[in-house]
Write a structure and sequence with these properties.
Blueprint (H helix, E strand, L loop, with lengths): L2 E3 L2 E4 L10 E6 L6 H8 L27 E4 L11 H11 L4 H10 L15 H14 L4 E5 L7 H16 L3 E6 L2 H4 L5 E6 L2 E7 H6 L1 E6 L3 H11 L2 E4 L5 E5 L2 H11 L5 E6 L2 H11 L5
Parallel strand pairs: 3-6, 3-7, 4-5, 5-6
Antiparallel strand pairs: 1-2, 7-8, 9-11, 9-12, 10-11
The structure holds adenosine-5'-triphosphate (ATP).
Length: 289
């Protein structure tokens, strides 16, 4: 999908799938276009090119079935002078959801005790919980959440992780955006990396973690890189200056180090973390899947 705002291309052929029964995380730096992509999924932004389909229907059109998508756009989309209860009740009435479900969602989101307070008095975390309660109201088949961890306390983060997992286990397609991979690392089944409006990579997290390499810590970094280049090994450099992850068999690496007389303080088989993969993808700017 493409989107242009004021002559600036914000989405450039961004294409990704969000499978049922899984938590997909859309990650990327600030300004990458994540919110814009989510708004397009929610039918709030019309793409200038390409198309968006949710269960075969285009969001934002009259043929899009009510209750197909639960959308959380953030904690600042509420009318300040309304109570939490009335905010949700208003939404529930427009979508034929009974009041009992409103009470249940407020309870589940942990804000039943403040339901009669005006939103203006809510903390950031309470507003976020109200948004999450709203997304759950209609028990939609698809959930789209923009930065849902923002403002949540540690207990809230744990609750949200469990909630996302249970929603996926019930068969829903769950899409969560974040600019922090560490935040979603524990819950992502699938990750889509978006930068400058382009999808750089998308992968199942199990596949990423299965892909491994040889972790080498050596004070002779420059020589290690020269060796790797000569042997045509792929290398991921870590923030820690002395550490690299080499995509080769460990016996091969050991042999080459010994032949070249290279020293190391650590050499072991290691699996790639999601964060390693994320930064590698950003550095390479290429397509991995
Ligand atoms: N309504 C708008 N009018 C003009 N430009 C916009 C509009 N909405 C977003 N943009 C621009 O589009 C780009 C992408 O914004 P978007 O909010 O989609 O990014 P994001 O990845 O969600 O960022 P963040 O992680 O900071 O929330 C930014 O450069 C932003 O300034």
């Amino acid at each position: 999908m493409d989107k242009v705002y004021d002559h600036v291309q914000v989405l450039r052929g961004a294409s990704f799938e969000v499978p049922d029964g899984a938590v997909t995380c859309l990650v990327g730096p600030n300004g990458a276009g994540k919110t814009t992509a989510l708004k397009a999924l929610g039918g709030l932004v019309r793409p200038d090119g390409g198309e968006v389909q949710v269960d075969g229907a285009a969001p934002g059109t009259s043929s899009f079935p009510l209750g197909h998508l639960g959308l959380v756009l953030g904690p600042d989309h509420w009318v300040e002078s309304r109570t939490g209860f009335h905010s949700l009740k208003g939404l529930a009435m427009t979508s034929g959801v009974p009041e009992s479900r409103v009470r249940q969602c407020l309870e589940e989101a942990g804000i039943a005790a403040v339901r009669d307070r005006k939103v203006r008095t809510y903390s950031l975390g309470m507003r976020q919980r109200l948004s999450l309660a709203a997304a759950m109201l209609g028990q939609a088949r698809n959930l789209v959440l923009d930065e849902p961890f923002n403002g949540l306390d540690p207990e809230g983060v744990r609750w949200l992780r469990a909630l996302l997992r249970s929603q996926a286990e019930e068969g829903r397609a769950v899409l969560v955006s974040s600019h922090l991979l560490a935040e979603v690392e524990d819950i992502a089944d699938r990750v889509v990396v978006l930068t400058e409006g382009r999808v750089l990579a998308q992968a199942w997290t199990d596949d990423v973690r299965r892909s491994s390499g040889v972790l080498v810590r050596s004070g002779e970094r420059a020589r290690v890189l020269v060796l790797a280049r000569a042997r045509q090994w792929q290398v991921e450099e870590h923030e820690d200056q002395d550490t690299v992850l080499i995509d080769a068999e460990i016996e091969e690496v050991q042999k080459a180090f010994s032949q070249e007389g290279l020293s190391f303080t650590e050499m072991r088989q290691a699996s790639r973390t999601l964060e390693d993969w994320f930064f590698h993808v950003l550095e390479e700017g290429g397509q991995e899947s």
